């Protein structure tokens, strides 16, 4: 317990130091992060994409073999399939899809790409490469927790020594930073909604504080009520938004484009995922800003989301995780970007908020969007607090939610340049996290090999 408490303290001090540096020397901090991003991520970003690509292929093959029947634990699944999928979607990237569904295709088109290529890039950034990482970490932690019976896999697999503690600090810090930005993402549209529909001028600080109270209330209600119920509502509201956009914009164009581009994405997936911009400096810069930056951000979320996936997947099989965590969400992400990308481009809307206002002058869709963002945020913050609690000390979930909110308040007190600095920080912070994840995967495979040598292959149902 004391060691875990020290890990928690080290995590908090690290976050304070990072924000203090950003606040006191924003120019120097931004220059340092930009240098790292261009020279490290731009040239070696394949350390993020190649392992995710390999994991997607390996697990897909395994799922089609008898090993796909491997069950995590001896009990029946704790949640129904629909509730499970809803929780995956809400926690994995729900608020990100809502925010970027209109934005990313528009960015690419404005940069000179045609619409099809813009959508294919969005598919690649939000599809298999992202969900394969979530799925791989979820499988590792589920097997370690329920089959190997390891209480704290993130520490135990690496021996529980100094290096494992240092790795744990980096994992928790990346979770805290990522969720602090989610606070910031949610506060701006909710502030606009409060002004538009309620006539209230509420500062981002107060909105963040209220959001943290919602997240704490959700955590107090328990996993089977708070996150589960809110995730189900999230999924319904998201489907309403997507269906409304589909019907009110260009339904035939959306269907035709999706049916045409999905097979093309599958065919181009290896070349898209393995692109390194060989002998093309401009391409390397583009990769650092887009593919590598997105994948680095996913690495920052892999542990948070993967551990949460493991927590809600007790009793499920490896095959179910491959299809339910990687393939189905990737398919949905592609459909989402096709719908909102074409919807935004066809109406000229700059973002999802403008799109909803254009499609529905009565404000119903805009109100649903605001509620959807609120619920997405609450489930993300609650589940992130749960994961931080699992990685550190018991009964600390509310503390971690408050820590994320406090960091978000500081970010919103800073100017716009600092906000961009913190966004870049996610990609840079993912570098040590990536090596920590690689160490965990290696340690897991070695432990698995040792157990198989001692006991034979276990856990695969006939």
Bin the strand percentage. under 5%
Briefly note the structural class of the backbone. Answer: mainly alpha
Helix content: over 70%
Continuous helix count: 19
What's the count of strands? 0
The overall pLDDT average reads: 83
Q: How can the largest sheet be summarized? A: none
The rough form would be described as globular
Report low-confidence residues grouped into runs of 5 or more: 457-462
Order of helices and strands: HHHHHHHHHHHHHHHHHHH
Question: What is the count of distinct domains?
Answer: 1
Report Rg. Answer: 21 Å
Distance between the termini: 40 Å
Question: Can you describe this structure in just a few lines?
Answer:
The protein is mainly α and 462 residues long. It contains 19 helices and no strands.
Helix/strand layout:
Layout: H1 2-24, H2 26-44, H3 46-63, H4 81-92, H5 94-110, H6 115-126, H7 128-146, H8 153-156, H9 162-198, H10 204-221, H11 226-248, H12 251-273, H13 281-289, H14 291-312, H15 318-347, H16 352-359, H17 364-391, H18 397-413, H19 416-455
